[in-house]
Structure formats: C-alpha cells, structure tokens
Amino acid sequence: MNHNLKHENIVKTVNLLCKRISERFPESGLSKVCVELGIIAEESESRCEWIRKPQLILRLGVGILIALIIAILLVGIGTSVRFSSIQGIEITDFLQVLEAGMNTVILIGATLFFLVTTETRRKRKRAMIAIHQLRALAHVIDMHQLTKDPERVFSTGQRTASSPRQTMNAFELTRYLDYCTEMLSLVGKVAALYAQDFEDTVVLTAVNDVENLTTGLSGKIWQKIVILHRFKNVSKK
Predict the structure, then answer these.
(1) Claim to verify: residue 73 and residue 170 sit in the same structural domain
(2) Do residues 175 and 89 share a domain?
(3) What DSSP assignment string belongs to the chain?
(4) Contact at 8 Å (CB) between 200 and 117?
(5) Fewer C-beta neighbours within 10 Å, C or N terminus of the chain?
(6) Which positions ≥6 away from 73 have C-beta within 8 Å?
(7) Same-domain pairing of 44 and 139
(8) pLDDT of residue 76
(9) Are residues 177 and 104 in the same domain?
C-alpha cells in the first residue's frame, strides 16, 4: 500500500479551499493568499520531479573529472616512486615527502567529495528555495489572522480610531480562522513533498521546521476558535 503524499490530491485540496474562501469572503486578502498557495503547490510538481530525477549529464561530467584526477595522481605517485628508487632518499627527505603527500591526499579527497556531492547540493538548493517560500507564506497567513480576536465580536467597549475594523460575526470569524488553519496545514504538506523522495538531512530538517512552525501557528488560531465558542455559549445563557 502506497502511503506517500499525492501531489495532485494536495493541489485539488488547495484549489477547493480557495473556492470556499472566495465564496465566503470574496475579494478578501486571505483568498489571494490561498491562490498564491495554489500556484506554489502546482509548481512543486515540476520542482520535485527535477529533484527526483538523476542528472545524468552532471554525473558524467563529474565522473570524467574524478577519473582524470585519479589518473594524474597515479602517474605522479609512479613517477615519485621511480625517482626515489633511483636516487635514494634520506629519512628527513622521506618525512617531508610523506607530509606533502598527506596534504595532497587530503586536498584531493576534499576535491573528490565536492565533486561527488555536486548533484545533491544543486538539488538541495532548489528544495531550500521552495521551502523558504513556504515558510514565508506561513507567516503571511499568520498576519491575516493576527487582528481577528474573538473578544472584539462580543465586546461593547469603545473602539479607538486605530482599532481594527470588525466586520465579521461569530460564525464568519470562526470560518475565517478555520480556513487559516487549513491553509497552514496544506503549507506543511506541500513542504513535505520535497523531502518525500529526496533523502537529504538538511532538507528534512527544513521541512520539519516548517511543520513545527505551521503546527505552532495553527495551535494559536485554535485557541482563538475555542475562546470564540466559549463566548458564544456564554451569550446564549
């Protein structure tokens, strides 16, 4: 049984959420943010496909470079061995040659590691750009619900000139906050797509950070929803 996230299902869910928001709150800022999330979700398919596929041309080029480096290294070692066997070598000269050889081996090893990880680093960069975009979008969603306080729905206190406008009733505010939690959840699901088929610890850590961020922001919003329901229940008594 396949338990992987389906890209097309996530896109359908985001598009459906966009319709629900636009029908309930037409021309609202939240509906525009949801449209942006839908665009990012659709783009994630091509991005994940690019990350998932092996870059054969890059691998071929790296393989040729590695073969050339090893060939040059072997030729250099062979030349040094023949020269030392003919001329002879003292202990101090041998230690100097050994130290220089060790430094060369370390340098070559670092170069080979850099070449071998080139493909991974390219894919990681592409994934991290997309994940950073999703992280920023999560904060934008949080900004939209920032001034949506349940207390303002039932408060009879005097408002100041700078007080946020309260245009929603209790039901509408509940739906608005609920839409925000759904969007945050979908942000986390889109981010998870990048770690699903790409085993990289840096990307996985970044995805987990986005999941923790969206979960924390959703928790704050659900506290508002709970408070809103309590106000509604008290007002009915």
Answers:
(1) no
(2) no
(3) ---SPPHHHHHHHHHHHHHHHHHHSTT-HHHHHHHHHHHHHHHHHHHHHHHHS--HHHHHHHHHHHHHHHHHHHHHHHHHHHHHHHH---HHHHHHHHHHHHHHHHHHHHHHHHHHTHHHHHHHHHHHHHHHHHHHHHHHHHHHHTT--THHHH--SPP-TTSPP----HHHHHHHHHHHHHHHHHHHHHHHHHHHS---HHHHHHHHHHHHHHHHHHHHHHHHHHHHHHHHHHHH-
(4) no
(5) N
(6) 104, 108
(7) yes
(8) 62
(9) no
The reply to whether 173 and 102 lie within a common domain is: no
- Taking the C-alpha atoms of residue 210 and residue 214, their distance in angstroms, rounded to an integer, is 6
Q: Which residues of the chain have pLDDT under 70?
A: 1-2, 73-74, 76-105, 153-164, 232-237
pLDDT of residue 141: 95
Residue 110 CA: distances (Å) to CA of 56, 63, 115, 116, 120: 22, 15, 9, 10, 16
Q: Note the pLDDT of residue 86.
A: 45
Q: Is 124 a domain residue?
A: no
* 174 and 232 fall within a common domain: yes
pLDDT of residue 102: 65
In-domain check, residue 160: no
* Same domain assignment for residues 24 and 61: no
Angle CA 128–132–134, to nearest 5:
120
Structure tokens at 199: 């085993």
Domain of residue 48: give its range: 7-54+131-154+165-236
Count how many domains the chain has.
Answer: 2
